[in-house]
Specification:
556 residues, Rossmann fold, four-stranded mixed β-sheet, 59% helix, globular
């Protein structure tokens, strides 16, 4: 694709189809019989509630924000109801199609903006190198469904701006608004990115010229989209602000100096992965800067204002790199952000990679002969894309400690899910009443909340770490309405891969040795505590009527 002199539309579309199909097949081979990512199980619970109650917005203790953005689950449950497929199969079909439509939509969007088939196909290839493309953006999560809707809305908006016929303007405008509405009800962050991109395009339309009455469709589209967004988040998804507050607070804390300055945790993992992460990030930045100069040369062409808009929006890469350097959560936030900033950054990077190949052609044309080394430039261009792709895998999701296949690891996301804790969640769903407060380590509590239909309090570390049943522990049990404690003794065998054993763990990142086994077996000796589930490694204790809920003295 890079080396050929001409690329036909069918060939470009074929590339845009083959890339997501191949990557999704890899994702399915990774875990072909069940979901593996914890957030997927949370969305399964929302889908199960829709199928059971035939209503939207049922509470979901596993991920409270999920029912408020039900786009993914609405489509999945519709497919499941019509086809009688399981939620896993129906969800796989839905996110698989969404993954393919994302790349196809991006291809048409890039072609509309640049008018070049080759650049459109190459930009899709560049986008596929971003860290979360291979796995995270193919999971059964609401972002996977929202991304192609965002691209479809942008594509319809671009077509609206390019046409001069009023009927076509109205048609494409309504299509853009419909896709924007679908994005709003599917995923919060994606809808915010969509509005931001619309505003950037609007600003670019006014740069260097006076606005005219022909510009009215775009601001109207933006106003209607913002109105729908405010209405949904303010009335239906009213928990969005509370959901994002901890993330924003953590980001602000990373910006505030502590002691000698912000604490920056460097990438960890196998040396080869770390080297690839640094190399690919540096390479992306260099290609982006060179690609911006190539993009600037297109500003005077017929589609120049759209190109300028993409150039302005692609500067978000610089902000993302700043976030990357903030601290312990910087790498995770950068990976999440890459899904969005690469939607526009892929264009200048694609132009830069194409320019590297053109250097070879220019060398060939000089004095009618090939200069020494000119034949290598085609290989260099291919190598650049490979480094970006390998770096994306190295710094993307899942992290090195969670990759499958592999043996069970402590608090390591996918590697911490096995048949034992899945059986525990199934037992809780069938043998217990729903929505009981369950205390446990992060992975166990997450599975009990999603697949087990229980409630998982967020701050239960004190219950495990304190040796005595004191007033603070009883207050925790009462305030969080904890009725059961799930103990997986395997977490005493190793340090947590994520750095924490529990949600809101006060010692996150500070553990130097595994939890003592005595911290986990002490519940066997507390007055009134009953064991109601035991499989050798996992034990469930019922604590109603025990020392944890009574006003008696402390017991060690």
């Amino acid at each position: 694709m890079v080396r050929r002199r001409q690329v036909f539309r069918a060939e470009g579309l074929g590339v845009a189809l083959l890339i997501p199909i191949a990557s999704f097949l890899i994702n399915e081979a990774y875990s072909p019989v069940q979901f593996r990512f914890l957030d997927e199980f949370s969305h399964v619970r929302t889908a199960q509630a829709i199928l059971t109650t035939h209503h939207l917005f049922s509470p979901n203790p596993a991920l409270g924000i999920s029912p408020q953005y039900p786009g993914l689950e609405v489509v999945t449950t519709a497919v499941a109801s019509l086809s009688h497929l399981s939620i896993y199969v129906a969800g796989t079909v839905v996110v698989g199609l969404a993954h393919v439509l994302l790349c196809v939509g991006l291809y048409f969007l890039f072609v509309e903006v640049t008018g070049r088939v080759r650049i459109g196909a190459l930009a899709v290839l560049i986008y596929s190198t971003q860290p979360h493309f291979q796995f995270f953006d193919s999971y059964f999560i609401y972002e996977s469904m929202a991304l192609p809707l965002l691209v479809a809305s942008l594509l319809a908006m671009v077509r609206m701006l390019k046409t001069r016929r009023r009927g076509a303007v109205l048609t494409w405008g309504l299509a853009a608004l419909a896709m924007a509405g679908a994005t709003i009800v599917t995923h919060h962050v994606t809808s915010y990115v969509l509005v931001a991109l619309m505003i950037v395009v609007w600003v670019a339309q006014w740069i260097g010229r006076r606005p005219s009455w022909g510009d009215w469709p775009l601001p109207i589209l933006i106003l209607l989209t913002v109105g729908g967004l405010v209405a949904w988040d303010g009335i239906i998804a009213s928990g969005t602000v509370a959901y994002f507050t901890p993330t924003v607070q953590g980001l602000l804390q990373a910006l505030v100096p502590h002691g000698h300055g912000p604490s920056v945790r460097q990438p960890t993992g196998p040396p080869f992965d770390v080297a690839l992460e640094y190399l690919s990030t540096l390479l992306l930045l260099l290609l982006f800067l060179y690609g911006l100069s190539r993009l600037w040369r297109l500003r005077h062409r017929r589609l120049g204002r759209l190109v300028v808009a993409f150039g302005i929006a692609s500067l978000s890469l610089i902000g993302a790199l700043g976030i990357r350097a903030l601290g312990s959560e910087g790498s995770l936030l950068y990976g999440r952000a890459a899904t969005f900033f690469m939607l526009v950054t892929a264009l200048p990077v694609a132009l830069a990679v194409r320019a590297v190949w053109l250097w070879r052609l220019r060398l060939k044309r000089r004095r009618g002969r090939v200069r020494r080394g000119s034949a290598w430039w085609g290989g260099v261009a291919v190598a650049l894309v490979l480094v970006l792709g390998l770096g994306g895998v190295a710094q993307g999701w899942p992290p090195y400690y969670a990759r499958l296949p592999g043996r069970f690891e402590v608090e390591a996301w996918e590697r911490s899910i096995d048949q034992r804790n899945l059986d525990l969640a199934s037992w809780a769903a069938t043998q217990l009443t729903p929505s009981n407060g369950f205390a446990g380590d992060f992975v166990t509590a997450s599975l009990l909340a999603s697949l087990g239909n229980q409630a998982a309090p967020q701050s239960v570390a004190k219950l495990f770490l304190d040796q005595k049943v004191n007033a603070a522990v009883r207050s925790l049990v009462k305030n969080e309405r904890i009725a059961f404690i799930a103990v997986d003794r395997r977490i005493s065998t190793a340090l947590p891969a994520t750095g924490y054993y529990f949600t809101n763990d006060p010692h996150s990142g500070d553990y130097t040795s595994p939890l003592p086994l005595s911290d986990l077996t002490k519940f066997n000796h507390q007055a009134g505590v009953s064991r109601i589930f035991e499989d050798g490694d996992i034990t469930v204790y019922a604590i109603r009527g025990s020392v944890y809920t009574a006003g008696s003295g402390s017991h060690s």
